[in-house]
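Exam revision sheet. Question 4 asks you to relate a sequence to its structure. Input first:
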Amino acid sequence: MRPSASTTIFALLAVLGAALPWYFNLHFLAAAGNLFGFLRAGFANPAVASVTVDIFIASVTFLIWMVMEARRLRMRHWWVYIVLTFSIAFACGFPLFLMMRQRRLRQLESANP
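Answer key, structure tokens:
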């Protein structure tokens, strides 16, 4: 079965969502040297704090929905997306889950034509 356009787009976004945030994370860690400095910088001023809180709330919302959706679709290894969201980036975990969800939906459709 050929991957759908949305699956391909989600895969590309997951790769970009891993590579681009970590490019900047590594530059920050090279300059500041520790994780605590990184966390403090997330609240360095009101504009950055707004983005930090926004991403945090979006991530929690995604994780709640993702667990419910993964259970509904009986997706295996759903916990991996939680690990990726916190260890790599929300921008990686979210599109990767959407890609795997699309694959699962297509699998279920082909099993029940």
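Marking note for examiners. The CA atoms of residues 31 and 69 lie 40 Å apart.
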